[in-house]
Amino acid sequence: MHAGAELVAVSEVVAAAAPAYRLTLSLADGSRCSAADVLFALADFGLLQAQEDDFGQHGAQRVFLWPAAPPDGSP
Questions:
Q1: How many Å separate Cα 20 from the centre of its chain?
Q2: Helical H segments across 1-75, by residue range
Q3: CB atoms within 10 A of CB 7
Q4: Is the pLDDT of residue 75 over 60?
Q5: In whole angstroms, how far apart are CA 11 and each of 27, 59, 72?
Q6: SS3 42
C-alpha cells in the first residue's frame, strides 16, 4: 500500500496475438488512484515504461499494458 492508501493491484498476462502484461489499479473504496499511487505500483511491478490504457470502468480503474516479450522474440 502507498502512503496509507488502500491500493488494489491486479496483475495478469494477456495471452493474445501479442502477449502483454496488464496491471489494473484502483483504490479499495472504488475511487481512482492518484499519479503517486500509480508510480508506486508500476515501480513495484517493474513496469515503469508501461502505457496507460483508458478503457477502465467509469475511470475508476487505471489499466497499464506492457509487452510480455520483445517484438523480435528475443529473451
A1: 11
A2: 35-44
A3: 19
A4: no
A5: 15, 18, 24
A6: helix
Residue 39: per-residue pLDDT: 92
Nearest to 42 by CA among 25, 20, 56, 57: 25
Give me the helices (H) in 17-71, please: 35-44
- How many CB atoms sit inside 10 A of residue 12's CB? 10
- Of the two residues 64 and 74, the one the predictor is more confident about is 64
Do the beta carbons of residue 61 and residue 31 sit within 8 Å?
no
17-70 residue pLDDT tens: 778 888 889 898 888 888 888 898 899 888 888 888 866 556 788 899 888 875
Residues 47, 66 contacting (CB under 8 angstroms): yes
Give the C-alpha separation, 57 to 62, whole Å: 9
